[in-house]
Amino acid sequence: MTSPQTLTLSSVKEAHALIKPFIHQTPVLTSTYLNTLASTPQTPEALSATEWSGQAPARPTLRLHFKCENFQRIGAFKARGAFHAIERLKQSPDFDPSRGVVTHSSGNHAQALSLAAKESSIPAYIIMPTLSTPSKIAATLAQGAQVTFSGPTAPEREAAAQKIISSTGAVLIPPYDHPDIISGQGTAALELLSQVVLPTTTTTLNAIITPCGGGGLLSGTALACSESPTTKVYGAEPSFQGADDAKRGYYSGQRIPSVKSLTVADGLRTPLGEIPWEIIYERRLVDGMYAVTEDQIRAAMRLVYERLKVVVEPSAVVGLAVALYNEDFRNMVEQEGGEGGWDLGVVFSGGNVSLDALGELLKE
Amino acid sequence: MTSPQTLTLSSVKEAHALIKPFIHQTPVLTSTYLNTLASTPQTPEALSATEWSGQAPARPTLRLHFKCENFQRIGAFKARGAFHAIERLKQSPDFDPSRGVVTHSSGNHAQALSLAAKESSIPAYIIMPTLSTPSKIAATLAQGAQVTFSGPTAPEREAAAQKIISSTGAVLIPPYDHPDIISGQGTAALELLSQVVLPTTTTTLNAIITPCGGGGLLSGTALACSESPTTKVYGAEPSFQGADDAKRGYYSGQRIPSVKSLTVADGLRTPLGEIPWEIIYERRLVDGMYAVTEDQIRAAMRLVYERLKVVVEPSAVVGLAVALYNEDFRNMVEQEGGEGGWDLGVVFSGGNVSLDALGELLKE
After folding, report:
1. What are B66-101's pLDDT values in tens digits?
2. Which residues form the Tryptophan synthase beta chain-like PALP domain (chains A, B) (predicted)?
């Protein structure tokens, strides 16, 4: 395992070299319609029910480049970190593959770790809350993992993990608070930077915005851009029931260690991890944090289905929602980008949405 | 306008050269999961309620290559034919652009023709049934078209079109029964053939299957493959309420001129056109027709959303449904493909599905 303090752009590049045979280089999509929409001022009516009521709407010029990690293996960027963690483990002389790996997650990380472990014939133990949705349990079992159920609280999960570690000697691979996971997740931004070829004199993207839950993707992206002084990095969160913990921490200087939100962006209900916090806040590698409402997330989701024709989960579109609806962000782009505007990379983190829930989610 | 009798592979190649600046070269996607599923025999239980009940399930080997016309401009392959018809019109010395073009369609062709006309500053008159869904009317108006409403029957539509032609001198561009439309639609298959690079000794796809409504896409595809003797061409239709008119016509030797079906595949409710029939049946350029049930269409749709993470409309997936569920087709592939199996091109025709209807469509 890499030490957290030594994480740099090189860590992300090394991660990419290691995981390239196992992951997809996902495509980057664009949409003239969404560029026009993002570059059109919001109406005073749209702003009237917000904190920006009565202000003159921002007039940014935005060209959006969508990095489609919904097309990644297992349907989310999590495959990157999981394959990287496994490849690093395999390099360690202390690691006994037969003992396996363990994690507690009910979501994309569980599937990603199970897949990565399976492809190296390493047993994977996944601790899931008893109340997990049957489709998620089935998907994890389908990757050949051994699923153990626990209560929903952190102490219950950790006790279940500890029990498995004691009996098997498995290595714990947490979903985000782990250097190899973070550098692995950063590889999506590394690809994005190389994939976007701009016709203007600007040589690279002006900024990248990613969703922020535990912060693995955002801090990895920050590392990937840490030696590109002209590419800024922003994080996006849901504001519902305080799920914008990273934003509040970022602007108050104090990490918020717990969150209890039932935001529709279910991948972003977790608090920011310690190593991500160090990268995002203490090392100042992220330039700002922005939050959006549940309605804005739903509206962005509808636009992606209607216009880009790709399947995304609610968590995936918070960056787009910020670009379209957050006036603090839009004012900043107007000021910084001027008339030429900005080329903005927008990471779609995943596409694992329950089809049964989709109808309700997309309803206007 | 090209004469129907002279339509060949060259017509499709010429169409492609003309429309290339206006359309997207859409991507070709693959899925290991769907290949495995297509290459797994159906269970006796799955067959028990079908016409193949009690038969031994077919054991084809299939590698599927999905041509994603849902990513095409206006979200469907119809942009190809429409841009081609407009470009051909512009070449004609008799055509006065200010008189415009007219069509009667409530669907993708209306939007496609409106877009193509708009980009050449040609007025577009669209006749839509009074009961069209508001979203379709709005989308057509958004392309700058002039919408006229008529009753739902063919004579009512034709009378409305005639009235516009009399008063404006506009040229009628029907949705499929038109040589330039057909050769334009064939360009999707032309691209598909060049995009799929196969590792085996086979130099090209063994077959392409496309949805068949009016038959523009299928007959265009047949032209595109007409000089590739190793690439067969198949059509797919819904069987519900007789929407498999092309299949019934194909096997009885008599075109069926009218259809009244409310199949969920709403783009395929039209009868096969006369020029498509000539290409598909009389010139023997299509090798077979297959039909699927409403449940099979829904199941294929769920798989596409879950596994490929792309947004498709029900009409788009009938080819995939045939490959997965139609035992006549699967037995044929088993016999023809043998152990090596087949590389099958599957055209996803479009992705214009109402988000309000999506929840119901994807329900298990």
Report:
1. 999 999 999 999 999 999 999 999 999 999 999 999
2. 62-326
% helix / strand / coil in chain A, to the nearest 5? 50, 15, 35
Q: What is the largest CA-CA distance in chain A?
A: 63
Question: Which tokens in the block code for residue A355?
Answer: 């089809």
CATH architecture of the domain A27-71+186-362 equals: 3-Layer(aba) Sandwich (3.40)
Q: Could you say which residues of chain B have pLDDT below 70?
A: 1-2, 200-202
Active-site residue, B114 included: no
Query: Which residues, other chains included, contact A138 with Cβ-Cβ below 8 Å and sequence gap of 6+?
Result: none
pLDDT on residue B197: 84
Here the tokens at position A136 are 């998620």
Nearest by CB to residue B311, choosing from A305, A355, A356, is: A305
Task: Compute the Cα dihedral for A165, A170, A176, A182 and give only its sign.
Answer: positive
**Residue contacts between A and B (CB atoms, under 8 Å):** 53
**Contacting residues for B279 by C-beta, under 8 A, at least 6 apart:** B7, B182, B215, B219, B222, B223, B285, B286
Give catalytic status of residue A78 as yes or no: yes
Q: Which fold has domain B78-177?
A: Rossmann fold (3.40.50)
pLDDT digits (tens, 9 = 90+) for A270-286: 999 999 999 999 999 99
Q: Is B218 helix (H, G, I), strand (E, B) or coil?
A: helix
Which positions in chain B touch A306 (Cβ < 8 Å)? 355
ipTM: 0.91
On chain B, the residues whose CB falls within 8 A of the CB of A27 are: 27
Spatial CA neighbour of B184 closest among B56, B57, B353, B16? B16
Question: What end-to-end distance do the CA atoms of chain A give, in Å?
Answer: 46
| Contact criterion met (CB < 8 Å) for A310 and B309 | yes
Q: How many CB atoms lie within 10 A of CB B99?
A: 15
List where CATH 3.40.50.1100 sits in chain B: 27-71+186-362, 78-177
Residue B348 parent element (H or E) = strand B342-348
Residues 6+ apart with CB under 8 A from B110: B103, B126, B128, B136, B140, B145
